[in-house]
Amino acid sequence: MAVMQIPGHDHQGPREVSLEEIRAVLGDCHLCPLGETRTELVFGVGNPHARVMFIGEAPGRNEDKQGEPFVGAAGQKLNGLLSLAGLEREDIYIANVLKCRPPSNRNPKVEEIQTCSPFLREQIRSIWPDIIVCLGNFATQFVLHTEQGVTKLRGSFYEVGHFTVMPTFHPAATIYHSDWLPLLEADMRMLGQWLAEHPTKG
Ligand code: URA
Questions:
Q1: Is 124 exposed, middle or buried (0-12, 13-18, 19+ CB in 10 A)?
Q2: 47-66 average pLDDT score
Q3: Among the four residues 35, 90, 91, 174, which has the most C-beta atoms within 10 Å?
Q4: CA of 21 relative to ligand 1 center, distance in Å
Q5: Contact, 153 vs 146, CB < 8 A?
Q6: What distance in angstroms lies between residue 54's CA and the mean position of ligand 1's atoms?
Q7: Is the CB of 60 under 6 A from ligand 1?
Q8: Which of 40, 70, 120 to mutate to test the pocket of ligand 1 (most atoms within 8 A of CB)?
């Protein structure tokens, strides 16, 4: 399996900041205009000490209503895929690049990502996972500091400082691109194999 080294942004190491503290700093966030149009801020959910952290793009309609990531159609797909890696929702942590839903599910804007992503970076440092799975282009480009698309990057692992990173397709994208589903499934099996072969980094 190919592994590429990418300069990391984790040089400060893990922090003793809890997810609750990060959530408290966000409060009723209005740092960008999405604060005006959202219903619920979607912080993230799951095991605060997860070995595997999944990062999506932004909340959709159902997530915006319920305040939890990946509870809609994309979430149903993700739940099915997790088993291919030997994982359950309880094992992982999931968050998005953006904490608030862009109206009509439009793409995140550069300035929204710049404003919101420091909170994701703090979540990553709090959880300090062994491996980060990036679902789709926005998560991949943020974590790998690249402008390349996931189609080119998937199928390999990347080392970003402490973290191993696995970019793959967004589960929602496979609804329109059914030919991507077997590739996403293969990536999830590759993740399961990586977990079995790599003891906890700690
Ligand atoms: N798509 C995402 O990227 N994140 C969610 O939480 C839901 C759908």
A1: buried
A2: 98
A3: 174
A4: 23
A5: yes
A6: 10
A7: yes
A8: 70
Question: For residues 184 and 81, is the Cβ–Cβ distance under 8 A?
Answer: yes
| CA–CA gap between residue 75 and residue 92 (Å, rounded) | 13
Please state, in angstroms and rounded to a whole number, the distance separating the CA atoms of residues 141 and 1: 21
- What does the pLDDT look like over 89-135, one tens digit per residue? 999 999 999 999 999 999 999 999 999 999 999 999 999 999 999 99
Shortest-distance atom of ligand 1 to CA 170: 3
Sheet holding 52-56, edge to edge: 3-6, 157-160, 163-168, 131-135, 52-56, 93-96, 45-46
Percent of the chain with pLDDT over 70: 93
Question: CA-to-CA distance for 201 and 117, rounded, in angstroms?
Answer: 25
> At which residue do the structure tokens 């932004």 appear?
58
Ligand 1, residue 63: give the atom nearest the CA.
Answer: 6
What is the pTM assigned to this prediction?
0.94
